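Reader question, answered in our methods column.
A reader sent in the components of a multi-part assembly and asked whether the whole thing could be modeled at once rather than chain by chain. We filled in our standard form and ran it. Here is what they sent:
COMPLEX SIZE: two components
ENTRIES:
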Amino acid sequence: MATTATLTLSSADIAGDPVNVSTTATLTKAGGVVDMDQFNYCRINLGSATDKVLIPAAHEYSTTNSNKLYVRNLSETSTEYVTLKIEGSTGVSFGKLYAGQWLFMPYNQNDAAALIEVLPSVAGIDIEYALVHENVDILADD
Amino acid sequence: MATTTATITINSKDLLTDELSLATTATLYNNPGYTTGLQRLKVQATAVHSTATVLYTADDFAAGVYLYIKNTHATSTEYIWVYEDTNDRVLLKMAGGDWAFMPLKGDTTIKAYAPSGSNPTVEFMVIGTDQ
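And here is the structure of the entire assembly that came back:
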C-alpha cells in the first residue's frame, strides 16, 4: 500500500508525431523505504493581491524530508495567475500558474528559512493545494 | 499553436481513513506550440557551477513555460538538485524516482547538479512559446 502520483502529458500536435509522457512516483519518506503518512489539503481564497505564505518555513518541513507539493489555480479567468515564490536567504519567484493550471514538485529545501509564497495577480483568486509530507508534529506554543 | 494537456492523479488507499483519489487535467496556458523535446542527460556537476547541466536557457521561450523533470535514478538517496542560475537558488531537491511538473518564469536559466558524484540521469522536457 502506498501513495502514488502520476503525470500524463499529452499532445497530438506539438511535434510531428504525438507526444505522450507518463510517469508515476511512489511517495515515500526520505530514504525511499517507508510510505508517506501525513497529508494536508486546503482550498483557500487569496483575498488581496499581496504575498501569502502557503507553506511555512522549514522548522515544520525539515530540510531532510521528502515532501511533495501540489498547487492548482482554480480561477476560470484565463488572464488571472498566481506567482509562486521560494523565499529564504535568497528569495525568488520561479513561475506563474494561470487559471486552471497546476504544479507538482518535491518540497525539500536546502535552506532552513525556505518557505513557499504565492502572489495572486488580482485579489480573490481561489487556489487549492495539497502537501504529502512526513514527520511534522503539532508545534509547541511560541 | 498546439494543444497540450497535463493530468495528475494522486492515489492512496491508506494515507487517510478513506481512499484518496485526486485527479485534474489542465490544458497548458496559451497553447504553447514548441518544446525542447524529451531529453535524458547525465548530471555530472556536483555543485552549483558553470558546468552544471542546463535544463532551460533564459529567454529561450516567452512567458508561460512548463518544465517536466524526473530523476531516473533507482536509488532514492541519489539526489538531483535543480536551481535557477541568477541567484543560485535551489528550487527542487529530487530524490531518485521523483518527478516534477511546474511553470517557469522563462527569463532565468535553470540548471541541475548531483552532489553524490554518481552522475544520475535526468529526464526533462520544456514546453513553451518560442521567441
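What stands out: The first strand of chain B starts at residue 4 and ends at 12. The two ends of chain B are 13 Å apart (CA to CA).
Send us your own complexes using the same form.
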